[in-house]
Amino acid sequence: MIPWEERRQLVKVATLYYTEGWTQEQIAKKIGVSRPIVSKMLQKAKEAGIIEIYIKDDSIHTVELEQKLENEYGLKDAVVVPTVGLTPDMVKRAVAKAGAYYLSKNLKSVKKLGISWGTTLAEVVKEFPYIRKEDVKVVPLEGGMGRRHVEIHANQLAHELAKKLNCTCLYLYAPAIVESAELKERLLAMPDIELVLEEGRTVDVAVIGIGNPHKLSTLRELGYLDENDLNYLRKLGVVGDIGFRFFDAAGNVVIDEFTNRVIGVSLEELKKVKQVIAIAGGIHKLDSIKGALNGRFIDVLVVDEQTAAAIVENW
């Protein structure tokens, strides 16, 4: 039990500091003690329950989710976007906007920036501000050629992002998926293709999306996967994909006939990149995002609130 006189002094110090806005130095002079003593008094007031700090803001819930995700999965950073009441399309745009903002504010020492493909990343590039970063080079992380949905291919996204940054970009002149493993080997033997892939393996930051091949799948929509493929992937335990590469719920990389025909940076190579930023939203991607987190493919996650809460509730 703290004596009344001491308790009164603790209340006075706490009031001056938290309510009146005095500095610890000013309080020390007023009551005739050193500044470290004031610091100890404030700590004692907290321990005694005299001071209870409340953060009054709607963001507190999402910040708590961010901290839990960071601690559980060893993330460098997490950004949880408030999306309560939004439609799926609005959720995707909100997450993409947050991802674009995060990326734009974290390019200080980046010289090589890798980007994958997909509809979410296309929204990220669309939301990305115009800033001058002439010393940055943007690199596609997988191939992408053809006439269908060119706007979401890695080459196109690299080109559009480079325009926003006023910098240069490389192009990977090869399809993302080729007809056979033999054709893949022949293409990989071409110096221009191997050079871009090597640049992709050594980027400072990689920006990726996360897909669910079973629900609202862009891979299926584009015709890369049919029902037989999906049944096969289910038997293998596949829950998600990053850059056409599949993984299971535990985060194990799944190698199959499909992935053996992909031209791009592999998941094993992606793990070696200094910082991988995943931007993904939508509750339909819950298992996919969890698998990617379990596989430790990600350093930074930008995700919607509903999905983040479901991840935390179902460790």
Distance between the termini: 41 Å
Q: What value does the Rg take, in angstroms?
A: 25 Å
Structural class: alpha/beta
How would you sum up the major sheet? 7 strands, parallel
Contiguous low-pLDDT stretches (5 residues minimum) are none
Rounded mean pLDDT is 93
CATH class division of the largest domain:
Alpha Beta
Q: Considering DSSP H and I runs of 4 or more, what fraction of the residues is helical? A: 40-55%
Shape: elongated
Number of domains: 2
Number of helices: 14
The CATH architecture of the largest domain can be named as: 3-Layer(aba) Sandwich
β-strand percent reads 5-15%
CATH topology of the largest domain: Rossmann fold
- Strand order, sheet with most strands: 1-10-9-5-2-3-4
Give me the count of strands: 10
- Helix and strand run: HHHHEHEHEHEHHEHHEEEHEHEH
InterPro entries: Cro/C1-type_HTH (IPR001387), Homeodomain-like_sf (IPR009057), NagB/RpiA_transferase-like (IPR037171), SorC_transcr_regulators (IPR051054), Sugar-bd_dom_put (IPR007324)
GO molecular function: carbohydrate binding; DNA binding
Pfam families: Sugar-bind
Domain HTH cro/C1-type: 21-41
Summed up:
The chain is of the alpha/beta class and 315 residues long.
Give a structural overview.
It comes from Caldibacillus debilis GB1. GO terms for molecular function: carbohydrate binding; DNA binding. Belongs to the SorC transcriptional regulatory family. By secondary structure, this protein is an alpha/beta fold. It folds into 2 domains: 4-47, Arc Repressor Mutant, subunit A (Orthogonal Bundle), CATH 1.10.10; 60-313, 3-Layer(aba) Sandwich (Rossmann fold). Helices cover 45% and strands 13% of the residues. The chain has a 7-stranded parallel β-sheet with strand order 1-10-9-5-2-3-4, sandwiched between helices. It has a 3-stranded antiparallel β-sheet with strand order 6-7-8. Strand 6 and strand 7 (245-248) form a beta hairpin. The two termini are 41 Å apart. The mean pLDDT is 93.
